[in-house]
């Protein structure tokens, strides 16, 4: 099982930095997310070091984990940001990030989001279709502003992960087919309120091999060279994100290896390189802390029923995302029989891990590893379950960076029909 350096066993207890997870469970209750600020910063620093001295802008993907404390820590480190909604832009600004260092991605940007981003003078819109480009032109012209844009092209390359997190194939909703892109770029140059600045590409998430990325970026570089030969003057190329993290015994490529591939393909174009890492920064910086409520022996299956559920961590149910699960108290022998770690939600798909070998008893604490990305941000109130709290640890200090919801908040904004406004 893998753990990032911020989560280690000390005297038989799993700790977040210097704080035992048992202490956090006693203080704040379970389930809860626990983040290591030092790991978060170290993961960002690894990217910065890998591209040191090169014209590279690191835009953290806010969709991975948008907690204000996470964004604030990365903004203080010098991060720029990649967003996919107006709400994420508002979060970046509230956390102290500079909107003029924000890239706006996403296949369906709404009018109110485009107006907000234009008013904040963001760095770039990654445009993904002809209708979006023309709508952005109209809104920019209407507001008397100029929209800096890059066109997201689709190289038709499979990233290699689960099909739900692959984004670079011809059949996906993202981007513009490579063969259609140049005509749209010609149109963009003539549109009012539009300043064409770059070309973007993102083939998917949780890449455990760099070969698909190398293939996609080679195609992207060849396309850009054709554009340059045809008189297009570009400022940057956006290579997206998608680098995976170690999980299930598999080792992901390092940021240094990733940098070698990116620079080999794009380093000779004379352009600034924009990158959008998310999971590989935030994922290993967090765990989901949960307590075993019951052990249940079924016919041919054994279950650990825990207080966390798919509404807290959706990845396993949504696309069979793997998370190592570790006992908070070390030293026990794993059960001879594999066990499924499942939650209270009334769905068969409500599981955190299947067929695990764990030393586990009722009342034990478990840590679901690598839950710092696509964890809380995808959570919900399904089954009328209040959303859980988020804790950030730095050294021997722990702080609540999002409080646990109260039951009464579940119906905030609702009304009985008789009491509702017509």
Q: How would you describe this structure to a colleague?
A:
Strand 6 (80-83), helix 4 and strand 7 (102-104) form a beta-alpha-beta unit. The protein is globular. The termini are far apart. It folds into two domains: 7-36 and 283-411, Lyase, Ornithine Decarboxylase, Chain A, domain 1 (Beta Barrel); 105-277, Alpha-Beta Barrel (TIM Barrel), CATH 3.20.20. The chain is built from eleven helices and 21 strands. The longest helix is centred in the middle third of the chain and has 19 residues, at 211-229. The model is unreliable at 159-169 (pLDDT under 50). The strands form three sheets. Strands 4, 14, 15, 16, 17, 18, 19, 20 and 21 form a nine-stranded mixed beta sheet that branches. An eight-stranded parallel barrel has the order 5-6-7-8-9-11-12-13. With 422 residues, it is α/β, with parallel strands linked by helices.
How would you summarize the topology of this molecule?
Elements: E1 7-10, E2 13-16, E3 19-20, H1 21-28, E4 32-36, H2 37-50, E5 56-61, H3 68-76, E6 80-83, H4 86-94, E7 102-104, H5 111-119, E8 124-127, H6 130-143, E9 147-154, E10 176-177, H7 178-190, E11 194-200, H8 211-229, E12 236-238, H9 255-266, E13 272-275, H10 279-282, E14 286-297, E15 302-306, H11 315-319, E16 325-327, E17 339-342, E18 351-356, E19 365-368, E20 389-394, E21 397-402
Parallel strand pairs: 4-20, 5-6, 5-13, 6-7, 7-8, 8-9, 9-10, 9-11, 11-12, 12-13, 15-17
Antiparallel strand pairs: 1-2, 2-3, 4-14, 14-15, 14-19, 16-19, 17-18, 20-21
